[in-house]
Amino acid sequence: MGKTGKTIAEKIFSRACGKDVKAGDYVLADIDRAMVHDITAPLAIKAFKEIAGDAKVWDSSRIIMAFDHQVPADSIVAAETHKKLRRFAEEQGILNYDVREGIAHQIMVEKGHVRPGDLVVGADSHTCMYGALGAFATGIGSTDMGFVFATGKLWFRVPETIRFEVNGKLEKYVYSKDIILKLIGMVGADGANYRACEYAGDVVRKMSMAQRLTMSNMAIEMGGKAGIIEPDEETRKYLKAIGVKEFEEVHGDDDAQFSRIELDVTGMEPQVAKPHRVDNVVGVSEVEGTRADQVFIGSCTNGRYEDLKIAAEFLDGEKIAKNVRLIVIPASRSEYRRALEDGLIDIFIEAGGIVEFPCCGPCMGGSFGLIASNEVSVSTSNRNFIGRQGSPEGKIYLVSPATAAATAIYGEIVNPRDIR
Amino acid sequence: MILKGRAWKFGDDVSTDHITPGRYYHLRSDLPELAKHVMEDANPEFAEKVRPGDFIVAGKNFGCGSSREHAPIVIKLAGVSAVLARSFARIFYRNAINIGLPLLIVDTDGIDEGDELEVDLSAGDVKNITKDMRIKAKPLPEVMINILNEGGLVNYVKKYGDMVI
Predict the structure, then answer these.
(1) What is the DSSP annotation of A251-270?
(2) Alpha-carbon distance B97 to nearest alpha carbon in chain A (angstroms)
(3) Please, which of A108, A305, A417, B87 could form a disulfide with B60 given CB 3.0 to 4.6 Å?
(4) What is the average pLDDT across A155-173?
(5) Is pLDDT at A2 greater than 80 in this prediction?
(6) CA-to-CA distance for A128 and A130, rounded, in angstroms?
């Protein structure tokens, strides 16, 4: 009897439910780690209390809380929410990073809460970012999270896998952000719906962890349930650097079943997602000259040290255009400190930018750094839906940190290659 | 259960930002107030004019984007009896069922704004009274039918104590 091999997703679900399962099977799986933040935690706690009353959560050591959307509290409503969440975390003995450490997704990765092979859920759609470490991580809603808090389990349909093989030679000033935008443009906003994405190929293998996290982060923008990158030397190097020692890597079998999409990036120019869809992707040359009112460099997608360094290399010694407001927000306290120690923050401030404390910032669309009607935001974040950064009459273009920095200098969208 | 109401037609890829814009997040602890802005960025008239029992009828990938459960909650609070779409984004799909908002995966091309619909949820039959047409829905997975039959995941767990797959 021919037994076919398994994908990484199938292997992780088989381990987490204690049965040999394949894509299409329904399972009740044990959750290794769960994350909630200040927007989704209140409804999760409500659901948990409706299910479990005053009981303790299934395992407080496996739940992580962080406040990152309305931080520091931007209203009394937000302050009251934070207060309630703090109390819940204290009562339950849950590790709560509060407003102190930055964006929940970045914290989950850099504080070692995610290991290869883990099954992780987060009450936020960009939880898929942790797939860059070889985990199966996916976003869930609050009621599902309430169920996880109570039982430590969740039902899933084991997903099929689409493997994106990225090969070729990456041009200068073209990054993983440009590649993931290109892929989303190729398959569309639901091109990977219900399925696990896997990123492979020479170009992905050569990427640093920071670059990989950007790709995994945006799997959801094509409907992906996860954005997995098979662990390799870079994964091990990263985990060693953050002090994660014990983990079991999960690798896909050669004869596993998956569909394949190939991309040769040779000659590809920087990519831009035009308003109001993430899959509305064009080469930068098509939108060059588009006037910008605000440039945002940050978010869970592109707010890491490496992203800031790329932007700072452009902005070093330059001044931003008069018509532009530049907002820079490091993804976490530790990335912020690295940027500070290396003089990057100084460069942003010298150039005329505003540097904010780590949080979601304008990408949350209801806190600060919003745009007005008919304004254009050029942003390194992950979504450009109507109203995502403020006025529904505003427009958002999604770009890499390099394109964002170049745009800030010129006050209009430019190809970063042209100014170097 | 037979549901009756008018169709409100939307296109493809309606995101949770269209349904519950981030600029109203300060209202999230007051869900009835948040519901006054439901679907605002997809159709600004919807919240004011929707009547209890009406249906949201959309193209593919309805509910894409964030995991915010406020999206299906405010649709339900607005009185919408079910959402009919060619396909749903997966997090919204789960969230809606979990809070007891019925969803049907159907070919919605033949339904226009304002059409009177009659929906038999358990049979998955959609009758377009205005056009005298019948459409069959793709059945939901068994686990989701079981949750929906109890009115949502919380009721389901309260009744059965756990979940069996």
Answers:
(1) ---TTB--EEEEEE-TTPPP
(2) 10
(3) B87
(4) 97
(5) no
(6) 5
Question: Residue A154 belongs to what H/E stretch?
Answer: strand A153-157
Q: How confident is the model at residue B60 (pLDDT cuts 50, 70, 90)?
A: very high
pLDDT in tens, A309-329: 999 999 999 999 999 999 999
Q: Which tens digit of pLDDT belongs to each residue from A271-318?
A: 999 999 999 999 999 999 999 999 999 999 999 999 999 999 999 999
Read off the pLDDT of each residue in A248-258 and give the average, rounded to a whole number. 96
Inter-chain touch B90–A150, beta carbons under 8 Å: no
Question: B83 — alpha (psi -120 to 50), left (phi > 0) or beta?
Answer: beta
**Is B164 domain-assigned?**
no
Q: Does A40 sit within 8 Å of B69, measured CB to CB? A: yes
Sign of the Cα torsion A188, A194, A199, A201 reads negative
Average pLDDT over residues A113-123: 98
Instruction: Mutate one of B12, B18, B23 to test the A interface: name it (highest A CB count within 10 A).
Output: B23
Q: Do residues A228 and A134 touch, judged by C-beta distance below 8 A?
A: yes
Count how many residues are written for chain B. 165
Q: Does A386 sit within 8 Å of B41, measured CB to CB?
A: yes
Tokens in use for A201? 């190929």
Instruction: Write out chain A residues lying below 8 Å of B97, CB-based.
Output: none
Q: What's the CATH code of the domain at B106?
A: 3.20.19.10
Query: By three-state DSSP, how is residue B9 classified?
Result: strand
- Residue A349 buriedness (CB in 10 A; 0-12 / 13-18 / 19+): middle
Set of chain B residues whose Cβ sits within 8 Å of the Cβ of A225: 90
Domain interval for residue B35: 2-139
Tell me the shortest Cα–Cα distance from A118 to chain B, in angstroms: 20
Task: Judge whether B21 lies within some domain.
Answer: yes
Which residues on chain A are in Cβ contact (under 8 Å) with B165? 26-28, 155
Identify whether B74 is part of a domain: yes
A43/B70 CB distance under 8 A? yes
Q: How many CB pairs under 8 A join A and B?
A: 144
**What ipTM score was computed for the predicted complex, to two decimals?**
0.95
Residue B145 lies in a domain: no
- Chain B residues whose beta carbon lies within 8 Å of the beta carbon of residue A39: 25, 28, 68
B interface residues, A as partner, C-beta within 8 Å? 12-13, 15, 17-18, 21-26, 28-29, 40-41, 60-61, 64-70, 73, 87, 89-91, 94-95, 98-99, 141-143, 152-154, 157-158, 162-165
Are the Cβ atoms of B68 and A78 closer than 8 angstroms?
Answer: no
Q: Kindly give, in sequence order, each residue whose CB lies less than 8 Å from that of residue A233, ignoring residues fewer than 6 positions away.
A: none
How many structural domains does chain B have?
A: 1
**Complete domains list, chain A, with CATH:** 8-157 (3.30.499.10), 161-247+257-264 (3.40.1060.10), 271-419 (3.30.499.10)
| pLDDT tens per residue across span B4-53 | 999 999 999 999 999 999 899 888 888 999 999 999 999 999 999 999 99
A71's tokens: 């931080």
- Residues of chain B in contact with residue A27, where contact means CB-CB under 8 angstroms, are 165
CB A206 within 8 A of CB A109: no
